Automatic annotation (TrEMBL):
It comes from Agromyces mariniharenae. The keyword Flavoprotein applies. Residues 15-376 form the FAD dependent oxidoreductase domain. Its cofactor is FAD. InterPro entries: FAD-dep_OxRdtase, FAD/NAD-bd_sf, MTOX. Its EC number is 1.5.3.2. Gene3D superfamilies: D-Amino Acid Oxidase, subunit A, domain 2, FAD/NAD(P)-binding domain. The gene is solA. This is N-methyl-L-tryptophan oxidase.
Amino acid sequence: MSTTSDDQSSFDAEVAVIGLGAVGSSAAWRLAARGVDVIGFEQFEPGNAWGGSTGRTRLFRVACLEHPGLTPIARRARDLWRELEASAGQALFFETGGLMIGPSDSHIIEGTLAAAEAHDLPVERLDADEIASRFPAHARTNPGDVGVWDPEAGILRPEAAIIAAADAARAAGARILTGTRVVAIEPDANGVTVLTEVAKYRVRRVAVTSGPWITRFVPELPLTPHRVIMTWFRPREGHDADLDVLPVFIRSVPGHDTWIWGHGVVPASGPGSKEGFGGFDAKVGPEFDGPFVADDPDAIDRVVHPGETDGIRDLVAATFPDLEPEPSGVTTCIMTHTPDQLFVVGVTDHPRVVVGGGCSGHSFKHASALGELVAQSVVGEEHFTDAAFLDPRRFSG
Ligand SMILES: Cc1cc2nc3c(=O)[nH]c(=O)nc-3n(C[C@H](O)[C@H](O)[C@H](O)COP(=O)(O)OP(=O)(O)OC[C@H]3O[C@@H](n4cnc5c(N)ncnc54)[C@H](O)[C@@H]3O)c2cc1C
């Protein structure tokens, strides 16, 4: 394992992937699929509840309001999720369509339309009456609100998808070490030494994909982990049917200057099924509002305390009269923000260290393709799309 010189035989692997969450499990898979000798380290298990990928569902959108350059990444990601579904033999992605609602000059609407226009996406514009007739659950809107329907949006199953990617990496030849925490990386001119709590490995390059823990290894990156609360809601008695027409949404809140996102019942076996995952019916989350900076992701408070859900309860009551506003379920998760709310993917200031992360609350949908971009950065292949806007060096000038 440990080495003193750097002849060919002294390397334990070509590449080490540190952190096998959403991006890392896919990076290990895409590297192994290229025939690269990969060793992946995960401090817990793939699909764990302690990073940024817990909560059973994630929204998928192709008309990415955050940046039009994300659309090709979402499309490539969807192909890869479908490939993983085939290898795992289970559904990971459900295309439900998605509804964005807000003022016509809001970021939600303008950003969605900008991505749709840039990529000629088949979105539909809806006025308030059309929103109310097609989506009765969304009948309450603010005066002047409009809607955009993205037919390609849907719901992903994060834990199952991560496990599927780690399994695909193994099947392609990657060595996956679980329950193995990396404590340091030491890059030099010839390679990188990776130190775990019990051993030392020598590799040629590393991909740091440790989510909220990335700055332990690449401290110069301006990433800020935040503790966030996720909530689930059930319909009021007698209103179950209303959630049948509640596809993915991001929307303004009547009488409030904020927005919420979520989706209704997740069909466990495809459209038409009434069976939901995990016994919840709807999931709604508030926009990130920043009070819970978690400098040490290991130390975040995992307990949701009385009063912490009062805000979301009021927003749900204002928006969805047919939902019981008291959450039926709550949990904590970690969201890792960058200053421009985009991700960091690519080679860092050290040429042997590639990074993939900085979720900013919207990277899961892209994670399989971000893994592909990480793999391409590691092997020096041209990116499948222009990813310069995600270059981690944009923050160091
Ligand atoms: C509440 C919430 C809602 C979200 N909703 C959406 C959504 O609807 N749609 C969307 O696209 N995105 C969404 N996101 C964003 C998305 O879920 C995350 O961006 C993404 O899952 C993060 O993936 P990651 O690979 O960067 O990190 P993670 O999945 O957290 O992976 C990091 C992994 O590294 C491991 N690790 C860390 N340190 C070490 C170490 N020293 N040694 C070994 N292993 C280590 C961790 O255990 C973990 O498994 C949301 C995020 C949150 C928090």
